[in-house]
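Input record (Table S2, row 160):
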Amino acid sequence: MTQRILFVCLGNICRSPTAEAVFRVLAGAAGLPVTVDSAGTGGWHVGEPPHPPMVAAAARRGYDLRVLRARQLVAADFTRFDHVLVMDGSNLRDARALQARAGGQGARPRLFLDHAPGCGFRDMPDPWYSGDFDRTLDLVEAASQGLIAWLAAQRQAPGA
Ligand code: 4NP
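Output record (4-nitrophenyl phosphate complex):
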């Protein structure tokens, strides 16, 4: 069955659109059937493409972010998606609050970097503030591979 994956950050112009594009490519290469999207807890950048230096850093590794447009997380996302992966603890608090206000149904948001346990972070640093766009790509690639392995193992588990 196709797994529906949503990545969430604050602005939806740096970390989560990168996760969307990278995970789409790597899951495709792994033969994993997924649909992928991303959203921001904040609404400041709705309708905008990803941040230009993030687009450029991703392009140097072969990922195309140019077609993506920012949107804001909505309560219906928790039932539209099977997995909601957030980038940091602040996103987790905001996503949980939105879900609680809407009655608490659906996928429980989780930290994306928990799929990269050796990477040294649980919160993905925000390159909007740090300027380190390559570190974002390193962390997104590592956690994407971890998430792919985890989803593939779930598919093979008896009764899955
Ligand atoms: P992101 O980074 O959450 O990784 O997309 C940010 C982008 C914009 C802002 C904050 C974080 N902002 O405050 O506009």
